Amino acid sequence: MKKILIVDDEPNIVMSLEYAFKKKDFGVFIARDGTEALEIAEREKPDLILLDIMMPQMDGYETLKRIRESENLGQTKVVFLSAKSKEKDIEKGLKMGADGYMTKPFSIKKIISDVEEMIT
Amino acid sequence: MSNYVVGLIIVMYLAMLFVLAYFAEKNPRGKWTNNPYVYTLSLAVYCTAWTYYGSVGIASRSGISFLAIYLGPVISLPLWIVVMKKVIRISKQHKISSIADFISMRYGNNRFLGALVTITCLLAIIPYISLQLKAVSETFSLISTENSYVSTGFLDDSTFYIALLIAVFVAFYGTRSTDTSQHKKGIIATVAFESVLKLLFFLAIGIYVTYYLFDGTTDLYEQASMRNNFHQLTSLGGLENGFNWLFTICLSFFAIFLLPRQFHVAVVENDNENYLKKAIWLFPLYLLLFNLFVIFIAWAGNIRLPDVVNHDYYSLLLPLQQNNQGLVLMVFIGGFTAVISMIVVSTLALSTMVSNNIVIPYGFIKKLVEGNPEENTKRIKNIRRVAIFFLIVIAYFFYVNFSAQLSLFSIGLISFVLIAQLAPSFFLGLTWRRGTARGAEIGILVGVAVVFYTLLLPFISQVIMPNVKFVEEGLFGYSWLKPAQLFGLDYLTPESNAFLWSLSFNTLFFVGFSLRNKGNYRERNYAEMFVNHANYENLQEGAFVWKGEAYVADIKRLLSRFLGETRTNRALRVFNKKHNISDAEEKADARLINFSEKLLTGSIGSASAKILLSSVSKETPISLVEVLNILEESKETKANNKLLFEKSEQLTAMAHQLKEANEELLLQDRQKDEFLDTVAHELKTPITSIKAASEVLEDDDMPPELRKQFLENISRDTDRLDTLIHNILDLEKLSDNRTELDIKKRKINKTIKKAIKGVEQIAAKKQVGIEFTERENLEVPFDEDRILQVLTNLLSNSLKFTEPHTGTIKIHLEDGDKALRVSVEDNGRGIPVEDQAYIFDKFYQSKNQNTKKPQGSGLGLAICKKIMEGHKGSIWVDKGFKKGARLVFELPKSRN
């Protein structure tokens, strides 16, 4: 079973994603901010992390950096999931080492198919 | 006294003057030679042998009328501050070196006019110099014991040798530099020194006569009053005499400005125009002292001396009668001193005029153009030296042949009347811009002709043709043409008669011809610069109007002929630097032409300078309109230059401000971008949520409770979207000042209660208490809906950040002098210190939120702030409150 970590501070968005991925038999973990995300990631070693950028405390960029620094998370793919949809934002995200960049609002079906493609 | 002793004393005295002049020249900047006192004393060159001897003669024969000749200068002196200052400034600026140069330049460097003025001055001054020589010779023979000796020719006449010595002195100290506008400190120092001597010696003889020979002024008065002509000697006379007085005062008024020697000491040798301030009271004082004892010496002479002696020499004859040799010698030296200073300055001024206004422009200009600099310098100096000797020698022969029967007084007056002919072109030239060269020329010619007919012709006819009766009967027998009573005016003295008619005709012709003929542009150019000098004095080269073509190389070649290669190069370098002109510039402009003219004017006079420069340039005539335009432009340029500096400073300041403004704008721009980004993000979040929820809701297998939950989420996110959009629009409206606030006096109590009522339900649900200490009847002007909005916002925030059950919110009212203060405090977790400054910014969210962020648009407090600004009030966080958060807002009591 593939494990996926969803990191976002908006509970309503998380709720929909969680429902949809669970339905597809993913092991779903939830974090509300960067710190919590690192904690869960170290513990569960998910195959993929869906990471929001604009979050309180530790933002998405910083969280990605820490994940890439971690020895345990070499295999983990990270996909940004953000309302920042400008060209340069996407470029920046990919340059920082993200494996994908998806903009809000998104289509859940598309996210699931993209994620499946990436980790199978 | 023996001839030889007197001769030796004279030679010794002259030698002393040489030494004095030498030391003054050696230290030209010393304070002994550069001060207002020396300047004033040099003006006293006005007092000649005429004053020294002649005044006594007049006083003894016709009473106090001698004073008129000193009243003119005294009356004119206050005017100096205005007129002389202007003349001095113009002269310095244009390197003018004589009255002839001044008048010739005013009328466009007119060569003929310069020559005419010079000739008029020669006619006036040479006889005058001869009279000075006559005074020396006569006083010399009076005091010498060898009366039996009669000179047979000029070679054994001591006066001739004295004249030659004076000529040597002037030639030596007067021609050291070719630039005549340079100051001659040596000569001026000796003139000032002599002014002191002659005054002291004359006062000494006055005191001697009044207090030694007589028992003071009262005694003299009593003795004199017993004589039969006493009344006539002490009264002013009737109306006719009044006219004579008036005209004599006018004559001397003009003379103090126009006599070549006065112009020289007052204008050309002036170092500092501020000296005028001292001179205008010191010089009248000097004249007063000089005239103090005249009347007493005259009375004493009338009483003590036989009538047959020459009344002019009373001051010498009185001590001679007492055989007081020391005093006799002193008086003689005093008179000699007065003579020397007059001759020295006069020949200096005249020789400059002769060389610069006649000899060079009319004869030598071609030679000078061909010569090299050293030769030219030598030539110019030699021309001047020859002129000096020539003038003195002519004066000497005039004295030998003509002046036997004339008194000092009458020759002096003839001289003044002739000089007065320059008055219309000089004074009107300074004030009336229409005056033209043609007018000036004809005016002077006519004036001199009238003087010639009324004053000189009778004198000459007396000497040459004693039988012709036209003086008594009038020309061709017409009595109204009688020279001394022209047009039947028979009560004036011959001099007053000549003065009246010559000056009337002179002025008439000057004005008439000036009005008829506009003059060329050059004349109008200079007229503008002289008349309107205050406007153009700062312009210098810029004010000169010239249109044409000239090459710098030609001008350079011309200048170096007179100034030498090094001086020319230096002058041009300085000029180019000053005007920011490249050294490689080939074509000369008006400024260079004018600059070169000025450089040459000092050496060869303005008329010659103009002729020389026009020989290397092709000048195109320009219209009056162009002249005026160019003058205006240059005036503006000058003014602009001054302004430019200020402007550039302003510009620098402005650039700085602009930079700041730009930074501010950039910041605002960035803030706007950030704001839009944030708005987009804030809008996208609920939209994303709604979209995601609706997608998962497609799943038919979803349990009903979950489905209900998703539907509620959608509903809540929609509300959130709505609030956000509403708030954004509201904030923008408030920021643009588009909303009119409905500000009226209202009771705040009521509004607060309304606000509490609005949140009561939520508070009750969370079990948070709201306390309000009511204050009835407090009225302030405000917009009820908006203040309600503020209060609701603050209360909702407090509700959001306080814990359920334990939370309390308190509202306080504080009534101040000028404003009403409302505070809303809670016992929640408070606002972190680092956030306090930013919570009123749009979409500001604390970085340190360690819990899930509470719901809100992030715009509430920003809107509150805008509302308070609209009320001219304020809102802030009470930093001192530590038990939770306390937000305070203030409403001003008066709307202004």
From TrEMBL, chain A:
Keywords: DNA-binding, Phosphoprotein, Transcription, Transcription regulation, Two-component regulatory system. It comes from Flagellimonas pelagia. This is Response regulator. Residues 3-119 form the Response regulatory domain. CDD domains: REC_OmpR (cd17574). GO terms for molecular function: DNA binding. GO terms for biological process: phosphorelay signal transduction system. PROSITE patterns: RESPONSE_REGULATORY. Coiled coil: none annotated. It comes from the Bacteria. It holds the Pfam family Response_reg. The modification 4-aspartylphosphate is found at residue 52. InterPro entries: Bact_response_regulator, CheY-like_superfamily, Sig_transdc_resp-reg_receiver.
Automatic annotation (TrEMBL), chain B:
Keywords: Kinase, Membrane, Phosphoprotein, Transferase, Transmembrane, Transmembrane helix, Two-component regulatory system. It is a multi-pass membrane protein. One of its GO terms (molecular function) is transmembrane transporter activity. Its EC number is 2.7.13.3. It is an enzyme of class 2 (transferase). It comes from the Bacteria. One of its GO terms (cellular component) is membrane. The chain crosses the membrane at residues 6-24, 36-53, 65-83, 112-131, 158-175, 187-214, 242-259, 280-300, 327-350, 386-402, 408-430, 442-465, 498-515. CDD domains: HisKA, SLC5sbd. Signal peptide: none annotated. PANTHER family: HISTIDINE KINASE 1, TWO-COMPONENT HISTIDINE KINASE. Belongs to the sodium:solute symporter (SSF) (TC 2.A.21) family. This is histidine kinase.
